[in-house]
Write a structure and sequence with these properties.
- Helix content is 53%, strand content 8%.
- With 368 residues, the protein is α+β, with helices and mostly antiparallel strands.
- The protein has one domain: Cytochrome p450.
- Strands 1-7-4-2 form a 4-stranded mixed beta sheet, with helices on one face. A 3-stranded antiparallel beta sheet has the order 3-9-8. A two-stranded antiparallel ribbon has the order 5-6.
- A hairpin with a 2-residue loop joins strand 5 and strand 6.
- The longest helix is centred in the middle third of the chain and has 32 residues.
- The model has no long low-confidence stretch (mean pLDDT 91).
């Protein structure tokens, strides 16, 4: 099956704004004709019934129900809890990484921080978090075998349906309970399928992408000591670190998929109706036409011209503010507490196998 990849900033912006480019898979000819098997490795990006795969009024309805948890005010109220979790994780890392013993920074900080925050926000109990992490990681791992991909899709649906059932019986002060309450409210109600897939989207996106943001930013600073010096001297801020990392090393490299609901012309190229488009957000972040001739360089003094790490338009990431909060909080605390932190010598920093996300499988460091 043919999929067209869009990699330039301008052509992606054009596609995101084009009324003939949609998110619902029914517009994709192979999907509509039943040619995409349920064990396709990217099935969890195409089959869901949530706001990531919805258009128009339906997308607005679903987004409105969830957006209440991600207003700037609600995000700011989470700051003390985020700071508390970061302190706890760094305490544990210090205990395990005494002296020169390497510590996997991804496992110690980048993964558990967003997983804890988003789990508490949606009321996911600690007993489910390891399983949820495993399932979501398989969704982003595009080397997952077909039979495992199909089973992962089914297991995620079952796990989040179980969570919804638990919250229906014992509601709490969490977003899952709030969404369940909204199911019974007139025209805004959620179907059971929409509810479960919305939970999968928000929990998965809420931790995997922020995990990679924190790890990618830490790795960038450790491999660019002159840029780290700018932050420590006050010439650049931790917000600058987060924005430049999002541009230069985006957590989401390619986002499947959008579809042509009619014949369209993008970047001067005619694309027939019924085709699939892969948005190359990572490549757009290094597009010299948008970011200058040194777009390939990690530079905290750069004048930001607008990146697409959180997408753009109606599907702009709801959790962008929370991701930025977690990223700046974690990085500032990490490099302040461990001023001598460095990459562990002789240790590899392997990438996670994915065309969707970009991040280290592990990030071994010596805390100092």
């Amino acid at each position: 099956m043919a999929v067209r990849a869009l990699t330039g900033h301008d052509v992606i912006m054009e596609a995101l704004a084009h009324p003939g480019v949609r998110k619902e898979a029914r517009h994709w000819r192979p999907w509509a004709q039943g040619e995409i098997p349920m064990d396709w490795p990217l099935i969890s990006w195409v089959a869901p019934d949530n706001m990531l795969t919805a258009d128009g009024d339906r997308h607005r309805r679903l987004r409105t129900l969830v957006s209440q948890a991600f207003t700037p005010r609600r995000v700011e109220l989470l700051r003390p809890r985020v700071e508390e979790i970061v302190t706890e994780l760094l305490d544990a890392a210090a205990d395990s990484g005494a002296g020169t013993d390497p510590v996997d920074l991804k496992a110690a900080l980048a993964l558990p921080l967003p997983m804890t925050v988003i789990s508490e926000l949606f009321g996911v109990g600690a007993e489910h978090r390891d399983t949820l992490h495993t399932l979501i990681h398989r969704v982003f791992d595009t080397t997952t075998p077909p039979d495992v991909a199909a089973q992962t899709n089914a297991d995620m649906l079952a796990l989040l349906a179980e969570l919804a059932e638990e919250k229906a019986k014992n509601p709490g002060d969490d977003l899952t309970s709030a969404l369940l309450e909204a199911r019974a409210e007139g025209d805004e109600k959620l179907s059971q399928t929409e509810l479960v897939w919305t939970l999968i989207l928000m929990i998965g996106a809420g931790y995997e992408t922020t995990m990679n943001l924190i790890a990618n930013a830490a790795h960038a600073l450790l491999t660019h000591p002159e840029q780290l010096a700018l932050v420590r001297s006050g010439e650049a801020s931790w917000a600058d670190v987060v924005e430049e990392t999002l541009r230069w090393d985006a957590s989401i490299q390619y986002l499947p998929l959008r579809y042509t609901a009619e014949d369209v012309t993008l970047g001067g190229v005619r694309v027939p109706k019924g085709e699939a488009l892969l948005m190359g957000f990572g490549a757009a972040g290094r597009d010299p036409e948008q970011h200058g001739g040194d777009a390939h360089v990690f530079n905290l003094r750069r004048e930001q011209r607008g990146h697409l790490a959180f997408s753009h338009g109606p599907h702009f990431c709801l959790g962008a503010g929370l991701a930025r909060l977690e990223g700046t909080t974690a990085l500032e605390a990490l490099f302040s507490r461990f001023p001598d932190i460095r990459l562990a010598e002789g240790e590899e920093v392997p990438e996670s196998p994915s065309i969707v996300s970009r991040g280290a499988a592990r990030l071994p460091v010596v805390l100092g």
